[in-house]
Amino acid sequence: MPSPRNCLHSFFSDTELRTIHIEPITGDASSRQYFRVIAQDNTWVLCIDKDYTIHPTDQYPFLVIQHLFSLCSVPVPAVIGSDKKTGAILIEDCGDLLLQDALKKGETNAAALYRKAVDIMVGIQSIKGKEKEMPFNRFFDEEKLMFEFIFFLDNVSRCPSANGFSEKTSRTLRREFRSITQLLLRPEYFVLNHRDYHSRNILISNDSPVIIDFQDARMGLPQYDAVSLLRDSYVTFDENFVAGMQRFHYRLLRKKKLTTMSYEEYLYLFDIMAFQRNIKALGTFFHQTYCLGKKEFEQYITPTLAYLPRYIDRRPELAKSGEIILNTLAETKP
Asked: For residue range 57-66, what is the model confidence (pLDDT) as tens digits?
């Protein structure tokens, strides 16, 4: 990748560049690089993504979805400019206070912020578009859901506490995962989802949420984003809080005529979707921790595992795969 300073030639004059300071921003599980660009009277965020250099601008997901979300009043950082040649995008700086960190500091009203986050989520789920255009032509279909399950299978054996994970176990889980996937293929209920709507992808700027990392948005059950937010690997809440937010989400979906499912079906699909999403997250954490050596992700394995028993107890369809996973990772105490 080109150096960040070289990328800035697309946006600033040589005179301006002499007074600009550049600081790296720690990213998440992504190949993109982020930097804070600091001038005397302003700051910006510079993203460098090699994938942008090989995509036509009108097909590059980040720019397409940022434009769509902005038009639909979803709070996202503004794009100041972009340079396809270097893969550089200059973005409005909305600060670095993640929702995860705001909650840890205890300086904010969690219920109020999460109601805002759910409201924004439903705003995204309300967006309509042409079926052949991005992101409405991307789906949580069987291929995508199974890809996320299989990513777990490909990485679970990397976990030091995994035991007895044989080829036979893998085949059994693959069959169970495919059966679970079939339960989530309800296209009549599909809406637009952010796809990674958790506390590390929501900034708090001027006491309000700003949504980032939205380039993978796609159609799926409304529970997908709700699960990402309420069964978050990075932040956990008691069951009363989660139940209140589930009711709030469901009421908004019905109010905006975005679903016809009953509340019982909403809760059923929420649990099935939560199981799938948490398994996918575990695969990511195993890969990041034990394959890429990013040990900061290891701390999120145990809280993610801790979610699984409640779904397994409530939903018999998850019993077999859940028992195998929990037994396989028995030394990783939930």
From this structure: 889 999 999 9
